[in-house]
Amino acid sequence: WQAIENATGNTVYSGTVTLNSTQSGSTYNLTDGARGGHKTYNLNRGTSGTGTLFSGPDDVWGNGSPSNAESAAADAQYGAALTWDYYKNVHGRTGIRGNGVGAYSRVHYGNNYVNAFWSDSCFCMTYGDGAGNAKPLTSIDVAAHEMTHGLTSNTAGLVYSGESGGLNEATSDIFGSTVEFYAANSSDVGDYLIGEKININGNGTPLRYMDKPSKDGSSKDAWYSGIGSINVHYSSGPANHFFYLLSEGSGTKTVNGVSYNSPTSDGLPVTGIGRAKAEKIWFRALTTKFTSTTNYASARTGSLAATGELYGTSSAEYKAVQNAWAAVNVGA
Ligand code: ASN
Ligand code: ZN
Ligand code: CA
C-alpha cells in the first residue's frame, strides 16, 4: 500500500477537509499513515467488535450529510487527526501514549445512541449517531474530549469517580476546547462550549459551558465539600471554570463571536493570562504532577507547581493561577 495525503473528507460539522488515506491497488482505506496509522471503522449499528474499515474505490469520504455513512467517518478521522496534531505540535507528545502509535475510531455505534466514549481496553473511540434531532456525536470538541480520556488514562490516571473523576472529565473538556481552537478552520473557530454542534439537548444548546458551568442546570461553578459525590460530568465544573478564568479572566468577554460572562465565587476579579499559557500549565500539571487520586486541593498545588516551573513563582502567571483557583473556591 502507499500513503495518500490528499483525501477529501466532506464532514457533517467541519465542511470539506483534507484527510490522509492509504491506497492498496484500486482501493482506498481510511487509514492515516502520518498519524500512527489511525483508522476509522464502521460499526453499522452494531455494538461490538471492530467493525469494517472504511474503504472504497474513490478517495472522497462522505458528502456532508449524516445520512451518508462516510460523513460521520470523515468527522471522526478529522477530529482524531487534529487531536494528534495538537498534542504533537503544542505539547510535544506524539500519540496518546507518546510512542507514535495511533488509536482508532468506530462510528455508527448502535441505534439512536446519544453518546460517545473512549475505551482503554480497545484503545479506541466510539461514536453514536444521536437520536431524534440529535446528530452524530462526532464534532471536534467531542472527539478531542474522548481521545483526551486516553491521554489521562496513560498519564495521571485520574480515577473516574469522586473529585479525581471531575478533574478527569474537566481535562477532557479543557483539551476538547483547546483542540477546537487549534482547528481554526472556517467551520470550527473555537469556543469554551462543549458539544454546541451536536444538538444533544434537541434545542440547540451546548452540553456544557466553561465560563459558567451552572448554565447547564447541573454542573457546579465552584468547589464545595461533597462535590466528590455528584456525577463526574458535573463535578468537572470548578476545573472547567478555573481554566476559562485563567485563560480569559472574569466578567464579560466575546471570543470568536461567542459572548461569555464568568462569575467568581469570591467576588474578586481574575485577569486572564491567555489560553496559550493556560493550556501549557494544565498539560504539565496533568502529565507531571497529577496522580490517580488528585483531588481539587492537590490540583491546585499541582498546577501551581507546574506554573512555577514554567514561569516562576513570582510571575503574573503564578498569581493568576492562585486567583483563578480562589475564584472557584479552591483555596490555600
Ligand atoms: N461521553 C461520556 C464521556 O466521555 C461517556 C462517559 O460517560 N464515560 O464522559
Ligand atoms: Zn468524558
Ligand atoms: Ca466547542
Automatic annotation (TrEMBL):
Where is it localised?
Answer: Secreted
Keywords attached to this Swiss-Prot or TrEMBL record, sorted alphabetically, are: Hydrolase, Metal-binding, Metalloprotease, Protease, Secreted, Signal, Zinc
Q: Where is this region: Disordered?
A: 48-69
Top-level class of the enzyme under EC nomenclature: hydrolase
Q: What cofactor does this protein call for?
A: Zn(2+)
What region holds the Peptidase M4 C-terminal domain? Answer: 156-330
EC number of the protein: 3.4.24.-
Q: Provide the Peptidase M4 domain boundaries.
A: 7-153
Family statement: Belongs to the peptidase M4 family.
**What's its job?**
Extracellular zinc metalloprotease.
The molecule here is called Neutral metalloproteinase
